[in-house]
């Protein structure tokens, strides 16, 4: 069953975040993931959620998404994301 990683990112250093954007896609692809949405315009439809930069990734399953997130290959990019942005991340299984 596919798993979707949804990330709400508040960029605190746009120039530094560009470094992250250069590294992350190759590692996502390495783990079989793909971007479904990557920072495009978003609109709140209900509630008071004020999303920042939204990213949605699709992986084969939740274990594969966790393998990507916790991999040594992603560690350098993850460190950059933590340095240059604040993020909230969830994984949800598809229907």
Question: Can I get a quick summary?
Answer:
By secondary structure, the protein is of the alpha+beta class.
Strand order of the largest sheet: 2-3-1-4
H/E series: EHEEHHE
Number of domains: 1
Percent range for β-strand residues: 25-35%
Query: Rough shape?
Result: globular
Global mean pLDDT: 97
- Quick one: how many beta strands? 4
User: Roughly what percent helix?
Assistant: 25-40%
CATH C-level label: Alpha Beta
Give short descriptive properties of this protein.
95 residues, Alpha-Beta Plaits, globular, four-stranded antiparallel beta sheet, single chain, alpha+beta
Description:
This protein is of the alpha+beta class and 95 residues long. It has a single domain, classed as Alpha-Beta Plaits, CATH 3.30.70. 37% of the residues lie in helices and 32% in strands. It has helices at residues 14-30, 62-69, 75-84, and strands at 3-11, 34-38, 53-59, 85-93. Strands 2-3-1-4 form a four-stranded antiparallel sheet. Helix 1 (14-30) packs antiparallel against helix 3. The longest helix has 17 residues, at 14-30. The chain is globular. The chain starts with a strand and ends with a strand.
């Amino acid at each position: 069953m596919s798993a979707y990683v949804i990330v709400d990112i508040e960029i605190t250093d746009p120039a530094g975040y560009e470094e992250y954007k250069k590294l992350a896609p190759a590692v996502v692809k390495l783990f079989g993931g793909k971007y479904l949405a990557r920072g495009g315009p978003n609109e709140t439809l209900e509630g008071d959620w004020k999303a920042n930069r939204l990213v949605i990734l699709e992986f084969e399953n939740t274990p594969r998404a966790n393998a990507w997130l916790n991999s040594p290959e992603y560690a350098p990019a993850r460190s950059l994301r933590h340095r240059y942005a604040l993020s909230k991340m969830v994984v949800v299984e598809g229907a």
